[in-house]
Amino acid sequence: MKKIASIMAGLMLILGFSMFGLACGDTNSNKINLVEVTHSIFYAPLYVALNNGYFEDEGLEVELTNAGGSDKGMTALLSGSADIGLLGPEATVYVVDGGANDHPVVFGQLTKRDGSFIVSKTDTQNFQWSDLVGKTIIGGRKGGMPAMTLQYVIEQAGLTIGTGADEVNLRTDVAFDLTASVFDSTNAEYCTLFEPTASDMETQGKGYVVASVGLESGEVPYTAFTANKSYLENNKENVKKFLKAVMRGLEFLKSATVEEIAESLKPSFDGYTDNDIVTAINSYIASDAWNSTPVMSESAYNRMLDIMDNAGELDNRENVPFSKVVDNSIANELMAELVAS
Fold first, then answer.
1. Which of 21, 51, 157, 323 would give a disulfide with 129, using CB separation of 3.0 to 4.6 Å?
2. pTM (2 decimals)?
3. Which residues of 2-15 are buried (b: 16+ CB within 10 A; e: fewer)?
4. CA–CA separation, 62 vs 334, rounded Å?
5. What is the Cα 1 distance to its own chain's centre?
6. Which tens digit of pLDDT belongs to each residue from 289-314?
7. What topology does CATH give the domain 116-217?
8. What's the chain's Rg over C-alpha atoms?
């Protein structure tokens, strides 16, 4: 998978970078085209910043689109249709391994663990990971962090991936944004979903949330902001303002009541019930989902590589050192300014 991803990334680089000067190089523009991997309350600090006017306070206009997967989000970055991507860092690892010079880099971490939840077709009481033995669970797309982290958790529990009666049948052939519909229309007993989709499935009587993958997997830099090196160089101040607004959103989450948070998130989730939104907020607060700083640590990055290694999606770690994939310079500068103020 990693080799295929690298080849595809290389082709996209050749086709796409010619557009960057038009789409991403305007240093006089305060508009940021942001693409997200999926739409989830997992990214609450971002939506709070959008809905509470924090980006406007920084003089920025942020236009948000949903990619429906890190692979598609990375394609948007490479084609020049997006300036910044909120993606799984593994997508950046794959592209960096392709060898391009002006490749994307991670410049700010948002979440620090897996944000998905195990959803069961039956109301399983006191769920144990051993309950997955002999069952099918839809884990998303092969090579994506949801599937790789789930595999890691299953194997850390001492279970074996496979189709035998004493193994766990982990499906990795379903596109990230189709997981819920495929789960609903097939005989798979389990799947993983982000909130508020997981709670919405429960509200509809189509599934039951039985466990948090993130609480089992431990801390890992699961979702981060990514941009091309040239964009960061040409738009440093806007990028710093962008991160500042997101950090303000995070501070709001720490100080506001659940009801106040839900009110701020409603404009981004108007298709969901108030109860689903509140449940999702409480779930992510309980799992300590958000990183306290946009600065990604090298130890966290290496843990992500461990998970990729375990899934067989990383051929040579030497090709993707921390210093090549992550650029903390703007995040460090911002945090120094916030501390000083």
1. 157
2. 0.89
3. beebbebbbebbee
4. 19
5. 19
6. 999 999 999 999 999 999 999 999 98
7. D-Maltodextrin-Binding Protein; domain 2 (3.40.190)
8. 19
